[in-house]
Automatic annotation (TrEMBL):
PANTHER family: IMIDAZOLEGLYCEROL-PHOSPHATE DEHYDRATASE, IMIDAZOLEGLYCEROL-PHOSPHATE DEHYDRATASE HIS7. It comes from the Bacteria. Gene3D superfamilies: Imidazole glycerol phosphate dehydratase, domain 1. Its EC number is 4.2.1.19. It is found in: Cytoplasm. Signal peptide: none annotated. It is an enzyme of class 4 (lyase). InterPro entries: IGPD_sf (IPR038494), ImidazoleglycerolP_deHydtase (IPR000807), ImidazoleglycerP_deHydtase_CS (IPR020565), Ribosomal_Su5_D2-typ_SF (IPR020568). GO terms for molecular function: imidazoleglycerol-phosphate dehydratase activity. It comes from Oxobacter pfennigii. This is Imidazoleglycerol-phosphate dehydratase. The lineage of its organism: Bacteria, Bacillati, Bacillota, Clostridia, Eubacteriales. Keywords: Amino-acid biosynthesis, Cytoplasm, Histidine biosynthesis, Lyase. It catalyses: D-erythro-1-(imidazol-4-yl)glycerol 3-phosphate = 3-(imidazol-4-yl)-2-oxopropyl phosphate + H2O.
Length: 196
């Protein structure tokens, strides 16, 4: 089985980010964004997607966390897109529901080459730790558009913002893992167009 992996570095006046990603994971995960709760969510994402990842982020966090979070989404999306440049044999679609105590979240993905995000998720709290909850949509938008996927995320219900965030990140990871799985019965690009 081929190992799909990619390393990306991106430096701007606002952030300096390096990400290595491997779709076929073996438990090697290192995350340091300087934002405690964001690290927690990225580690959950990589763990529950069974992806290997090394994510290092430095940025203008003295301003706020917006640039660091959004740019991490950009680079992570670019890394995944590069890792699966050959989409031959992938299942393409994935949907997953994840419960986290009182919260239930759904994520559905199409590795389509057509970037789109639907994020139907409200957080009762404005912050979790010192991270603004409004930044989650910025992360997933940047990730989906730079990965080139259609991603729908919906909170079915929930009242604790920490639980909601965990359910969302885990559901997204599991749905993407399912869509990226190689199907031995498929020896082609899974599209009537012949390209994704």
């Amino acid at each position: 089985m081929r190992r799909r992996c990619k390393s990306i570095e991106r430096k701007t006046k606002e952030t300096d980010i390096s990400i290595e990603i491997a779709v076929e994971g073996s438990g090697n995960i290192e995350v340091d964004t300087g934002i405690g709760f964001f690290d927690h969510m990225l580690i959950s994402f990589l763990t529950h997607g069974n992806f290997d990842g090394n994510i290092k982020v430095s940025g203008d966090k003295h301003v706020d966390y917006h640039h660091s979070v959004e740019d991490t989404g950009i680079v992570l999306g670019m890394a995944f897109a590069g890792a699966i440049e050959d989409k031959n044999g992938i299942k393409r679609f994935g949907t997953y529901f994840v419960p986290m105590d009182e919260a239930l979240a759904m994520a559905s993905v199409d590795i389509s080459g057509r970037p789109y995000l639907v994020f139907d998720c409200n957080f009762p709290a404005q912050k979790i730790g010192d991270m603004d909850t409004e930044l989650f949509i910025e992360f997933f938008r940047a990730f989906a558009f730079n990965f080139g996927i259609t991603l729908h995320i919906k909170l079915m219900y929930g009242s604790n913002s920490h639980h909601i965030a965990e359910a969302v990140f885990k559901a997204a990871a599991r749905a993407i893992r399912k869509a990226l799985t190689l199907d031995s019965s498929i020896d082609a690009i899974p599209s009537t167009k012949g390209v994704l």
